[in-house]
Amino acid sequence: MPDHDRIEGAAKQAGGNIKEAVGKVTGDEKLKAEGQADQVEGKVQNTIGGVKDAVRGKD
Question: 26 FRET partner, CA 20 to 30 A, in 11, 20, 33, 59?
Fold first, then answer.
């Protein structure tokens, strides 16, 4: 089973993607920026989870 950080990171990326899209459609620059930030945060968290999995010997 993947590390918890990988799962949360992927979910955060998806949520950020949605926020960014809604921000673009509505013209809400703050929401768009929040979505982009969430995506970056999710990528970092996912990477950390991947490193933890690699250390444990999982792919």
Answer: 11
**Residue corresponding to tokens 């921000």:** 23
Question: 9, 17, 16, 2: which is closest to 47 by C-alpha?
Answer: 9
**How high is the pLDDT of residue 38?**
97
3-state secondary structure of 28: coil
Q: Considering just the CA atoms, what is the radius of gyration of the chain in Å?
A: 14
3-57 pLDDT per residue, tens: 789 999 999 999 999 999 999 999 999 999 999 999 999 999 999 998 988 888 8
At CB < 8 A and 24+ separation, what contacts does 29-36 make? none
The span from the CA of 56 to the CA of 37, in Å, is: 29
